Request: fold
Amino acid sequence: MRYRSFRLTILVAGFALVLLLAQLLFSQPPAQNPGGQGARGGGRGGVPAPPAGPVRRTAEGKPDLTGYWIGATKTNINNGRGGIINPDTGMPDGKIPYKPEWEAKAADTAKNHMFDEPYAHCLPAGIPTNLGLQFGFQIVQDKNTLAWGWDTVGATRLIYLDNRKHVPDSIKLYQGDSIGHWEGDTLVVDTTSQTAGWWDASGAVHSDAVHVVEKFTPKDENTIAYEALVEDPVALTRPMTVTDTLRRNGITNVPLAFKNRPAGYEQTETACVEGERDTALYTESGGGFAKDGVPGQAAPPGAVSSPPPRGGGGRGRGGPPQQ
Amino acid sequence: MKVPVAVMSIIVVAALAAFSGQAQRGQTPAGRGQAAVPNNGVPRMPDGKPDLTGIWQVLDLSLDANIEPHTASWGVHAGQGVIIDPPDGKIPYLPASLAKRQENYKNRAKDPVAHCYKPGVPRINYVPFPFQITQTPAWIQVTYEFVHNHRNIYLNGSTHLPGIDFFNGDSRAKWDGDTLVVDVTNLNDDPSLVPTWFDASGNYHSDALHVVERWTRTSMDNMTYRATMEDPKVFSRPWTIEVLLYRHKEPNFRILEYECQIFKEKLAREGKGNFLRIVEAN
Reply:
């Protein structure tokens, strides 16, 4: 089985590379963030964060959210630390107000369909799920747009500020269609057209009827109060409010690779599709391509396939060599 | 002639406002004296630099197939190519490298972009998908519709990251007059990860590739994109492409999503393609 051992070598090498990169980049892991306590609480070795100044502003006088941000990591949004407001107490320790059939669907997903987690397919996680990812995100803001980028999956998001209309609901997007406007210093963002997806990494599924209104209220230059009103009339008995505190990232928990660089922390490229192995390693009964009962064994290799045809193009694109 | 005080004060206020607006916009050397009527309708940022923001796309659909001059073939638009230097419009390969390119062409089903991989620089800018530039004085994010690619272009005087390669490289920029000049290094050539190509015809590079991009907005609706490639392991001399970008001005136009990997997986599930990574697909 020369082929198999070659693939295993690649696999092992791939893991080694990932580990090496992880060690290089994240030898100082981001702070644990229960309840949204983030980078501001002081870095390793007792180095306190510098005191936060006032909210930064753009040339137009609006709050400038440009920079690196991180919220609480919400691996399981239902565990009492996911920031869901409990309507009885007002505390952020609530649970998803699922309809019974969706409660069951979420439980079944967690038990039997983890293969469907968007992350396993290098897909953007959606809104507000993406706010709860462990390595945080960046925002670059100009007068018409907030462009976002995530470390995880290398996802992007564009929030348009130009009073446009939403795209037709028949268009589905993993990140949805986000349109924002300023109400004083609060950025209000309305997101429609999301695909069905997950609210965390533990099977908390939602339908494609989800509608989210987020409010970003900067408190000082390093802190944003975050609130999302999440409606899903298909899956939920009532709308739920999800809260968090977003902290400026990369101040105290600077990964080793960026230490001693005058520019400080930068978010780097994530190659997810390029190194994707989950679909190959999940077994067929779990939804993947690997043979059941053969751990680590991917599906048998087929003949070289033609690439999937791309929009408007045929197969085997490319012109003949001219030289 | 008597002018009512109210009217007079409106005129004065308006004149002052116009003057101060002009003074503000005209603060930088590039914008001085021409702020009120920018050259060729090129808008400017509050800091006086050309405003590159907007949604842009190449109109020449033949480029992603082959950046050299080529006749049409199945599914491929004919094209005159975009190489402006050398003058013959061809990539100046070293002899051994040309043979490798011909080999790549035979195996062009392995085009990394057809397998949903990041296209690399400069190709990311002429794959047939739109992209959006979001611009601040020190930091630009370019957001591409193709598989959520995005690039950070830093204008803060920082240097390239040592020791890490990226599919889309490491981009540090400065302004040369009204042209944004981006120095791109750290471009990936790891055979286990599949190096990027310049197009779907197998035009390729090594890990020694160094790209210098020059972005010049020439009017409200156009931008000239130049890229000079230097790679002494593969090319006998540096070579330059020039691509014309058009601004999307359709009402409500936005960057949507092309999550290519999902389509690839679906085809594999239907037995119509191989979902495995390219290096293993043989």
Remarks:
- Confidence is low (pLDDT under 50) at residues 1-37 of chain B.
- Residues 65 and 76 of chain B are 7 Å apart (CA to CA).
- The helical segments of chain B are 5-25, 95-106, 260-269.
